[in-house]
Amino acid sequence: MTVKELSEGIREGKWTSADLVRKYLKCIAENDEKYNSIAEINANALFEARALDEELKQSGMRSPLHGIPVLLKDNIDVKGMHTTAGSYALSDLIAEEDAFITRKLKEAGAVILGKTNLSEFAYFMSRQDMPSGYSSLNGQVIHPFTPGLDPSGSSTGSAVSVAAGLIPFSIGTETDGSLMSPSIANGIVSIKPTIGLVSRNGILPISHIQDTAGPMATCVEDIALILQEIAGKDENDPATNTCDIKDYTQQLHTNCFGMKIGVFLKEETEEKRKAIQQAMDILKECGAEVIEIEMPETMLDESEALKHEFKYGLNLYLSNHRSQCKTLADIIQFNRDHAERCLKYGQDLLEDSDSLSGTLKEKEYILKRLELEERSHELLDGTMDKYNLHCILSVGNRPQSNLSPISGNPCMCLPVEKPDTDHFNPFSYYLMAKAYNEDVLIHIAYTLQAKL
Fold it and tell me: What is the distance, to the nearest Å, from the Cα of residue 107 to the centroid of all Cα atoms in its chain?
């Protein structure tokens, strides 16, 4: 069931939050052995649900998320629970405070049911063919529909738990593709917000420039409801100083008159052409102007910049948390000391990052990051300005561009077909827009979802 349906059931007295917590705990207990998507369960979830049920009787619902269980990726702080990023080296780290996004969810009345597994260090550990969804702490996450299929990462457990029906929605994070890629691979919906719409405070980082958290669910309506609750300014995150929140729930309609959408295909396959034509027909029928466009470049390489930012961000994060590992260097040495468990796929990205200063003052880093910022906006915003577009749309079995994560602009994915365990085709629409235009993405995605 969707978040909206579960929320309506709570409001109408069909079930309680405690009922939902029991339901999803049972579902996890009976099914997650097949998927390995769950890292940890919140021991107090049922008590918290009961308190929310009592509050509902006394003063009503806080929000549409009141009493709804959620799982958070295990690089997001939840007070009293582990934050490990899947690393055996950080298995002793217990958060002493909630991340800002965790606090926002709790204030909205959501119940933190637990944490999800991920690709270790959000897939920033090794180039040596480390599988998506693998970590030294908890092992391999398995695709819910086709066990041999890549479940993708790094928000692997967050995507799999939603796709498998273990939870109505989850929170993942993205630096470059880690919300979009697993969502596409598992046939669910997600949005990567503009950098600054959702606080990064309390999230174990890769890049202070590109990191963000975002919702993962089975439908566009739920994404709108969740994004409405987690967006907001945070005095401890300077990126949110320009936060521009809109009413995303007002975009759940199919009137697209006055909108202009550009579509592009990276490879001209019959499957892609058919899917994009279907989308064009739907959007035109709903009043939008739809044109085919060309993009000179859709992928940029930010790997060298991320190496500088990872050491800086991780050391700062560890300095504010209690763990046997105080620095990236400590983690690297711990992994060497426990090589049989920790270095199955190596740690060359960790070592490359630790060889740098971690101060962000190197000339090559500063110039590269400035170049990436300028070029990504030139390619994405420049293309939108050239054609006077509200949104850019493509289709594929993976994210069709990384310009949004590098520029900080939002992007969103929506399955072309509803997932089917008998015939699963990980194929999704991928949408990009200008900064703080999440409302546009939600509007277009809802229109496609409603008409597919």
Answer: 20
Q: What's the mean pLDDT in 255-268?
A: 94
Please report whether residue 49 resides in a domain. yes
pLDDT tens for 31-40 read 999 999 999 9
Q: Do the bridges between strand 111-116 and strand 38-41 make them parallel or antiparallel, or are there none, so unpaired? A: antiparallel
* C-alpha to C-alpha distance for 334 and 322, rounded to whole angstroms: 16
* Interacting residues of 309 by C-beta distance below 8 A, sequence separation 6+: 205, 206, 207, 208, 209, 360
The enclosing H or E element of 403 equals helix 403-407
Catalytic residue among 73, 104, 106, 272: 73
To 5 degrees, how large is the angle CA 264–CA 154–CA 207?
Answer: 85
Angle at 11 between CA 10 and CA 17, to 5 degrees: 25
Residue 154 annotated in active site: yes
CA nearest neighbour of 142 among 69, 217, 38, 42: 38
Task: Tell me the residue length of the chain.
Answer: 452
Residues spanned by the domain of 169? 3-249
pLDDT digits (tens, 9 = 90+) for 9-39: 999 999 999 999 999 999 999 999 999 999 9
Kindly state whether residue 256 falls inside one of the protein's structural domains.
Answer: no
Structure tokens at 191: 């949005």
Domains of the chain: total: 1
Helix (H, G, I), strand (E, B) or coil at 262: strand
Clarify whether 178 is annotated catalytic: yes
73 assigned to active site: yes
Flag whether 217 is in a domain. yes
Q: Report which DSSP code applies to 79.
A: T
Q: Which of 17, 126, 132, 154 is labelled catalytic?
A: 154
Q: What is the CATH number of the domain that holds 157?
A: 3.90.1300.10
**8 Å CB contact between 259 and 448:** no
